[in-house]
Fold this protein.
Amino acid sequence: MAVSLLDIPGVGAVRQRLRAELFARVAGPRGPENRARIHETAGPRWFGPDRPIRTVHGDASMFIGGLRALLLQSLHPLAMAAVAAHSGYRGDPWGRLQRTSTFLAVTTFGTAQDARAAVGQVRAVHGRVAGTTAAGEPYRASDPHLLGWVHAAEVDSFLRAHQRYGARPLDPAGCDAYLADTARVAEALGVVDPPRDQAALAERLAAYRPELRATREARDAARFLLLDPPLPWAARGPYAVLAANAVALLPSWARSPLRLPYLPVLEATGVRLAGHGLTRTIRWAMDPRAAGEPARTPPGGAAAKAGRTR
């Protein structure tokens, strides 16, 4: 007779505890309320259940992709200046993650009405964010060109993480369809002509390269994210695996300015194997069917680990 892993004494309790802790971290105190609203409210959605954006944003690989996105986005000095001055990522990193988590979940899985409202809220916040970098360069969070960089770095990170660590990697047509899906959200946020396929994304990232550099704020953010996260000691081991895999997914041209290591043999073996093990564990813990819930992706499930600068 086949025996489920959950039939082993204590395993089910461990799974429930891990699931609850993950959900609380990334969804926040309003997580259950938001989850019910997103998944149980009737009405048309921007994306149907078979769309690639749901596959990517609903997978545990987003934990790695989100951190990679934050590191890559920091290389634009205007984007990093806005984050350092206005986001409060050091003082309230979990609150920022939870807001981003909810935005991604609403726009990916929620009703079209709620998605439009979420976009409107973000655009209102962007409209209030402006300033000057330490070098005297003015920035506006609502600048379409700056929003374009944030979007390109984000979707490149999400897609690369999913293709390496996702449960169901996409074929080339699926990758293009994912970018077409995300372009809808990007346009609503104010991005002009966001890339809709892999070729356009590669061209867009290359076009931004001359503007990128690692400022002091970017290197400080990388140290905070990779070496000094606000986590209990028990969680630092798994987080170190997440961080190592996020770094391993960065191109060499992004690592060098941030003073991040390049260890190709270790990354191709131990780091990658550990990354697969971590994402499988998160996926196992977050599976709603194990808790007797409908199969759905809650805000703060895998869809929530994003790095959009907001």
